[in-house]
Design a protein that fits this description.
nine-stranded mixed sheet; alpha/beta; about 25% helix; two-stranded antiparallel sheet
């Protein structure tokens, strides 16, 4: 008993010290999922109008502010109006009807209530234009969204010192408004995503990764089907996806901004072809 008492006292002190320690700060890159119920107030919008969504119920990228600002400037330069929000309650039929294009600026996660999902799907079914950027291709999205995006399930990306690498991306179609300004091979630095399957047979691949131009773990190799940018039709809806745009630097790079601008122009049916006779 003479030995046990000091040990018990020490244990009590340790427990007290642990209880007094401040709680660890939440990781801003991994916010707790939240759902929205009250729609945002929209400004006066002229057409075409772009809805920029950056809500994150999954991983939150540090470059979101730069991405949103850049997309707003692209819309303004076209003479279009835009509205940026992280309130997914904007996915209601009345408000979505005011927009021609929805751009996911590194939005992530399942952000929708059942009614919001239904409103988004109904808007797509009427022929809306969608542009998904970077984390719109990660593994946090629901299955119906992955099907609309048109490729496989996300398997990951290089990490550590290899997370961001300069690599050659190969242009397979330089006639599309998003890619016509790019060279046949474009040297680009990004975080390169991989999936367990290439884009669906109905997808039109614009850009693929040259896997031999960077360090890539075998588990992330997809071979010649390692697409990074593509478009497809969901009925009459124009669906565009680009895996590029993780870092803030991407959102001041002229070549990347032209790619995003061309994607928006195509999705809004302002230029380019596709998805009109279905």
């Amino acid at each position: 008993m003479m030995i046990a008492a000091p040990l018990t006292a020490a244990l009590l002190l340790a427990v007290a010290a642990q209880s007094a320690a401040p709680p660890s700060s939440p990781d801003p890159r991994r916010p707790a999922p939240a759902f929205d119920n009250a729609p945002p107030a929209l400004p006066g919008l002229t057409r075409p109008a772009v809805l920029i969504v950056s809500k994150t119920n999954g991983y939150r990228h540090d470059s979101i502010a730069e991405a949103v600002s850049a997309i707003e400037k692209l819309a303004k330069a076209r003479g279009w109006s835009s509205f940026a929000t992280e309130n997914a309650a904007v996915f209601n039929r009345a408000q979505l009807a005011k927009f021609d294009v929805i751009v996911f600026a590194n939005a992530s996660g399942d952000i929708y209530t059942p009614d919001q999902r239904a409103a988004f799907q109904a808007w797509i079914a009427k022929g809306g234009g969608f542009v998904g950027l970077h984390s719109a291709g990660d593994g946090s999205h629901p299955g119906w969204f992955v099907q609309m995006r048109g490729n496989g399930n996300f398997t990951g990306h290089p990490g550590g010192a290899d997370q961001f690498q300069a690599a050659d991306v190969v242009l397979l179609d330089r006639t599309h408004p998003a890619t016509r300004h790019l060279p046949p091979r474009w040297r680009w630095t990004d975080e390169y995503y991989s999936w367990d399957a290439p884009p669906a047979a109905d997808a039109h691949i614009l850009v693929r990764l040259d896997e031999d131009s960077l360090r890539l773990d075998p588990k992330y190799r997809m071979g010649a089907g390692h697409a990074l940018v593509w478009w497809r039709c969901e009925g009459r809806a124009r669906i565009f996806y680009s895996a590029l745009g993780h870092q803030a630097e991407a959102w001041s790079d002229p070549a990347h901004l032209k790619l995003v601008d061309g994607a928006m122009g195509w999705a809004a049916r302002a230029e380019g072809n596709g998805c009109d006779g279905r």
